[in-house]
Amino acid sequence: MVDGLNQQRRDALRELGAHMNAQRWDQQGLGRALEQPMTDAANALASSLTRHVLWSVLTGRTSDVEARADTVDQSVDKEMDARSGKLDARVKAVCPRLQALDRLQQQFRFRLADGSPLKLIVPEAGRDKPAGQLAAR
């Protein structure tokens, strides 16, 4: 099971890397690419966990389940903290670049056929994001 989860993780990271390095950001495409591997991994993990818990309950070893749950909880928290710190650093590096690109974009003098300005990136506010945070379309 661990090998399968590791392979699904590698596949998901490969898809994420392909979308992050693409010339054009496609948030919906990224969501579609990651959804199935993550769903498969979650289902495999839930199935394994359910089997383990049921076996422990039926054999009277519930204290083992509790100890294992505590260990898993601690290791997940530690890993999430480490990864969120790395992700936060990447966000802080990317956001100023997007803001600079938005300022350059606002200086464009040319227009589309309908007279509207070309917008390659647009500021996105709301949905729990600070005003002024940018997202590429």
Structure description:
The chain is mainly alpha-helical. The chain folds into 2 domains: 59 residues; 60 residues, no CATH class. It contains 3 helices and 2 strands, in the order H-H-H-E-E. Helix 1 runs antiparallel to helix 2. The chain is elongated, with a radius of gyration of 22 Å.
Mean pLDDT: 78
Strand content: under 5%
Strand order in the largest sheet: 1-2
Count structural domains: 2
Number of helices: 3
Helix content: over 70%
* Structural class by SSE content: mainly alpha
Q: Roughly how many Å apart are the termini?
A: 37 Å
The residue ranges in which pLDDT falls below 50 over 5 or more consecutive positions are 126-137
The dominant shape is elongated
> Taking Cα atoms only, what radius of gyration do you get, to the nearest Å?
22 Å
E-strand count: 2
Element string (H = helix, E = strand): HHHEE
Describe the sheet with the most strands: 2 strands, antiparallel
How would you briefly describe this protein structure?
This protein has 137 residues and is mainly alpha-helical. 70% of the residues lie in helices and 4% in strands. It is built from three helices and two strands.
